[in-house]
Amino acid sequence: AVVLIAFVLIALSTLVTAVVLNRFDRSMRRQFHSSLFDSSREETGTAGFARSFEFGIQNIRNRPYRSAMTGLTVVLVTFALLSFLSVSPDRSTTRIVHPKGEPVYKGFLARNKDWGPLTYALQESLETAYGDKNLAGRLWFFSDGGGDFSQIDLFAKEDLQTTVTALVGMEAEETEATHPERALVAGEWFNTSRDNGVLLSETSARLLGLDKRDLGQMVRVYGEPLPLIGIFDADKMNSLHDLDGESTAPVNFVLQRRLMAQRETFERPDTIEENVHHSWENCAIVPFEFARSLGGSLRSIAVTPEEDPLEEAISWTERTDLTFLASDGKEVRLISYLGRSRINATAELFFPILLSLLVIGGSLMGSLKDREREISIYHSVGLSPKQISLLFLAETSVYALLGGLFGSLLGFALMKAQVLGIGVVGLNLNYTAGSCLFATGLSMATVMLAGAYPAWIAYRTSQGTGHHLSLATHEGTIDCKLPFLYSEDQKESVMAYLEEQIREREGLSAGPFSTEHVEESGQNSLAFLSWLAPFDLGLSQSNRIEPAFDSDRNHYQLRLMSQLRTGDQVTWERQVQPFVREIRKILLAWKMESRE
User: Which CATH architecture describes the domain 477-595?
Assistant: First the structure.
């Protein structure tokens, strides 16, 4: 699930990054400019939002340092929230007296509650800690792997044959734990772990035609000849119990499952359940390594350390998820691990969220202060207050997406570094899919909330500018300067762009105005006749646009001169404002394209 979330975030951020870096391709820019000059659309529609989003992206690119610092802030906020929401294990161990335990030796027993296989890595770790002289492992081998239909054939002299259910791999150190040598009626136990031999029950030995006089005779187990080194009394072996009060013989899983099915409606006991074991009469004992070579599975390990068994068992329980039974020689205690997960410092999220709101909100408010003049310009070219507020929300959405992505990736990178042993000491980075999704969503929501106030301020600021343009009219004429300053090199470009846009409006029956008789005199002036909407009023005017040099600023500024030709003058003074606003839009579009 975490990987899926990461891919979703990467996909979203890739989309936004493409918008930021490429600004839209040529077709998108044409569509944008088309919507920019189409006043028939509502300002609150999809085109208005696209226009506002484009301006917002442009503002991010125009202020790289501020944008980089704001983005870095969002990344760190996301990482901080992830760290606060990281899952830490709540470890605890239970130590209760095992009512059916038997303190047959001073030490501890490692096994799974359901007698599932143990890993050999655990045995190696225990050997490293205590030495192989203090360990006695037990391996079970079934011919069918699970013990449901296991049959293992044993062969002796004159091809006599018998069948046992399981082979039990044991070690010489078992004599320090359950003392199986006490059940022998003939022969001896393994002297060392390298001893090679087999121990049979009296019943199995008799069926093979063997008795105590035949010690040393070869018994073939899976084709491997093993000398008979001992014969044991099955009843005595069955009476030899481990610390859990159970036999060391393999569990009869078929009968055990049947018993479990009969009492599955009852409450499960607090301690480990008592299991049904095979009789030692149907088992043979072989060396530990031989059973391992056949594919036997490690089921339990008896440890007899010199240290306090209880404290040692607790230590190993905290490192593993196993059940340990420890005995001090007087009683047996069941030690189990209780693992729960909790979210770190959930109640302390208020302050990081508040801090992130202040930091991100302050950054956007600073950006708002810098762009007070731009807000007036955007409004003067036709952007509504809602669309101007969307400028800030567009910027905020970019910060939210990129910050959420890279903040999460930063957390994953540091978590991987901790796994490799190069992480920050004391930093807990354990993420779940839920905490990652919640933290990322919370960070994005926080950023969007931080951008809401500057957007509202921009909305109110733009409302104060009003939609009405102050145009000085005198007897059906206007003479005004258009926005933006132009250098000598830009003068020709902007005039050519104006001519192109004016010619595109020749003969139009929709929009704020239609043009005809467009005359261009190089980069010096542009003259044309325009009809103002609504066209049924018959309002027409002659227009001339020319660059005027401003000696104070050492730049050019375009000058618009219009003269009413037909129609009512009062109506014309009102309808000429959309015409001037549309000319300003054209200049704003050229300004944006020139930045690219």
Answer: 2-Layer Sandwich (3.30)
